Amino acid sequence: MAMRLRLDHVTADYQIGPVRSPRVLREVSMSLQPGTFTAVVGPTGAGKSSLLKVLNGLLLPQSGQAEIGDITIDGKSSKRLLKAVRKRVGLVFQFPESQLFAETVEQDISFGPLNFGAHPRNVHALAEKVIAQVGLDESILYRSPFSLSGGQKRRVAIAGVLALEPEVLALDEPTAGLDPTGKEELLSLLKQWNKQNGLTILMVTHDMESVARYADDVVVMEKGRAVFHDSMRKLFEDTERLEKWQLDVPDARRFQLEFEVRSGTRLPRVCLTEDELADALIEVGRV
Amino acid sequence: MNKLILGRYFPGDSLIHRLDPRAKLISGIAFIFISFLAKNSQGLFLLWLFTFFVMSTTRVGFRAFFRGVRPLIWLILFTVFLQILFTAGGTIYFNWGPIKISEYGLANALFIFSRFVTIIVVTTAVTLTTKPMELTDGLTFLMRPLRILRVPVDELSMMLSIALRFIPNLLDEMQRIMDAQKARGAVFGEGSLFHQMKALVPIFLPLFSSSLNRGEELANVMDVRGYRSELPRSSFRRLIWKIKDTVCMLVILLLIAAFAVLNLI
Ligand SMILES: Nc1ncnc2c1ncn2[C@@H]1O[C@H](COP(=O)(O)OP(=O)(O)OP(=O)(O)O)[C@@H](O)[C@H]1O
Ligand SMILES: [Mg+2]
């Protein structure tokens, strides 16, 4: 039961009191295959967060439509339809720890499933399952979310969305403000859910290093348009356009480019990690 | 949330925008009293004339003002109908038990309606054209005499300006948390009253918690930067009284005089 996400010429803006904001999404069309790990990158204000909100039914297209599996949402979709969409696409906001409110972690995690009509008897097992999934100990379920550390809060908040058992998980800069270890751990958890459970992942990020290490595909947003949607390697091959979109490259790739200019030797392929770089250098006999 | 226009600043460069906040505050307060001076049809006409003059001078557009009146329209209509139905006197047009529609009732209703609407419009004009910070500065200045009564005027104004400063942040944050809970299946504004109240907990608890944190941080930062409430404060923004402010006060005086004359004849 693989579910496809499709955007068809989606244009959207925000209503601020009496006025409408300028377009934040312009004619965005894309199609996400089930089971992929897609990164969304682009400069600030490009509409990345807004894109996730459209997929979750929080921001309705002004024109065009979004297809979430067999549900189509457009500007006039009913609340019931939107709720069904939110069950399928779990959305983790930026700094999701600010949404924690309940007395215990378990109650907070149960909030979502209960809203979607899960039986109160089943939510305990569900809470145990997702707390283990985010790599936390079961005992944490009975503590107050406000007593946890920042990194723990972040994981609890993500567990609260995982508990909806969505088919697609959309995350807005999930690693912002985490220390390097916490960041690596979280990203490998995401990768693991993607690989083992077939969870489709869409992640907004500013960190090109994690794009290079974890993403299959990349969407580049610029001024409300999706200007690129292809495999991650294709993006990093295209030095010219990377520069045009002011996107960083991973350290290994930067080293490679610098090396190729200075030594005049071209490496056989695009290298994105230290290991790939080392292999390529050995191959051309420079190490 | 976004519909509330009272207490919002509307950027612009009209004559009223450039007036001193003190002049605007005094005029606004004076106008509330002036509106009670209108006692005959000429007075009513003058009241509306002045109100339209103020509205057009702000260059904000009439629609913004209607939006200011709208949230209060039921309260206004309620008072107006009470007046119409329960005031006796003059010619009676309709009589049914305690309910009478009389000449006096209709006249009274018209005056009350006009007072309500013109007061709202003129005070809205003041807040629409004055930056919140200017408004606080003006208020602080006008409250200065209260220092003699040991009212902590500077602390009050500091509290007021911090509160005003954080209202937009709070609204943004609330929107974000609401979206996040909606993504977890929460539905707002549906079901029984009890349900609706319960649905607010997941919004207001995180909001309170983050506001408290932010307040504590702000207090620490102010401490670290040497804020002492008992010392006299100087001000970065200076209020400067200009000729147009004096003119504004003269216009108000003229208006009072006009009403005095109208009520004598
Ligand atoms: N709630 C809102 N109300 C009005 N305008 C908004 C709102 N949220 C975002 N915008 C506007 O929409 C545009 C796109 O914002 P969005 O948050 O989607 O960008 P982004 O790519 O996620 O940026 P960042 O990298 O800074 O998170 C911006 O110009 C922003 O000002
Ligand atoms: Mg964003």
Automatic annotation (TrEMBL), chain A:
Entry EC no(s): 7.-.-.-
Tagged with keyword Cell membrane: yes
SMART domains: AAA
Cellular compartments annotated: Cell membrane
GO MF, one example: ATPase-coupled transmembrane transporter activity
Residue intervals of the ABC transporter domain: 5-248
EC supergroup of this enzyme: translocase
Main location: membrane
Topology term for the membrane: Peripheral membrane protein
InterPro entries linked: AAA+_ATPase (IPR003593), ABC_transporter-like_ATP-bd (IPR003439), ABC_transporter-like_CS (IPR017871), ABC_transpr_CbiO/EcfA_su (IPR015856), ECF_ABC_transporter_ATP-bd (IPR050095), EcfA2 (IPR030946), P-loop_NTPase (IPR027417)
GO cellular component, one term: ATP-binding cassette (ABC) transporter complex
Keywords for the protein's UniProt record, in alphabetical order: ATP-binding, Cell membrane, Membrane, Nucleotide-binding, Translocase, Transport
SUPFAM superfamilies: P-loop containing nucleoside triphosphate hydrolases
Sections of the chain in a coiled coil: none
Assembly notes: Forms a stable energy-coupling factor (ECF) transporter complex composed of 2 membrane-embedded substrate-binding proteins (S component), 2 ATP-binding proteins (A component) and 2 transmembrane proteins (T component).
Function: ATP-binding (A) component of a common energy-coupling factor (ECF) ABC-transporter complex.
Family: Belongs to the ABC transporter superfamily. Energy-coupling factor EcfA family.
Protein name, as recorded: Energy-coupling factor transporter ATP-binding protein EcfA2
Organism: Sporolactobacillus nakayamae
From TrEMBL, chain B:
Alphabetically ordered keywords of this record: Membrane, Transmembrane, Transmembrane helix
Annotated CDD domains: EcfT
Keyword Transmembrane attached: yes
Record-linked Pfam families: CbiQ
Chief location bin: membrane
Localization annotation: Membrane
Ranges annotated as spanning the membrane: 72-94, 106-128, 246-264
Superkingdom of the organism of origin: Bacteria
Keyword Transmembrane: yes
A GO cellular component entry from the record: plasma membrane
Membrane topology listed for this record: Multi-pass membrane protein
PANTHER family recorded: PROTEIN ABCI12, CHLOROPLASTIC
Protein name (Swiss-Prot/TrEMBL): Energy-coupling factor transport system permease protein
Organism: Sporolactobacillus nakayamae
